[in-house]
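Possible regression after last week's pipeline update?

I re-ran a chain I had predicted before the update to compare outputs. Posting the input and the new output here so someone can diff against the archived version. Not blocking, just want to make sure nothing changed silently.
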Amino acid sequence: MSASLLLSSCFKKTYDSPLDTSQYDPNLPVQASLKQISNIGQALGSGHSRVMGDTTVYGIVVADDKSGNYYKQIIIEDTSFGGVVLYMDKSYIYNDYPAGRKIYVKLKGLTLANYNGLPEIVYSADQAGNTVPIPSGLLGNYIVKGNYPNNTVQARDVTIDQVKSNPFAYLNTLVKISNVQFQLTSAGTSYALPSATASATNRVIESCDHSVTATVRTSGYCNFQPYLTPTGNGTATAIVSVYGSLQLIIRDTTDINMTGTRCN
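New output (post-update):
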């Protein structure tokens, strides 16, 4: 399931359950980093997949589905600066796996898929590249909770040039891009069109000298859809994604801090 599809899937209200704030960490043995898994996924090529062997990885949830900008997916990242999408057949995932939770993923029997360039861990995939999410009832077989909150993974400071020139070096990881602003045609307008009009909308941020741009893609179903994009200059924190080409996915509007003077 692609980044663009995940943004267009459903409207969701917020149903909060008390968070499990346990600091217990089972410290499961880990055999690979997420950077290694991401590299394998990228090397598969779009539409291809492979069933994984007896390997366990860990990651910190850096994006969940609470705002509705992700649907049935979370993003995990580890200290190798690698990340991957977990695609699961479950809503309100953030009640169990909120941003900031450490989790272990037992990959044996799961599938690593490449969906239009984006590495994803799914339940299965067919030869046409269609993927099946991990069934909700089987999540406990594959995912083990670690401690929460866990702050060992933070957004990396990058420039828009770095992300634009080589997005695959940052796939499924959290970055903080400095000295950017929304283009005039994307500034002071809603983050996305209403879902009745479009399932998702592209807005564009740019460098201060207007020479480099990047797409910010937002679901028409997310809870900040009608909020207006800022007109100033500042930082954008986002998950780096691709659907053929670069897409930046923000988790909510707190990821955007553009209160500085706009570059002319």
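Follow-up from reviewer: compared with the archived run. The first strand starts at residue 49 and ends at 51. Marking as no regression found.
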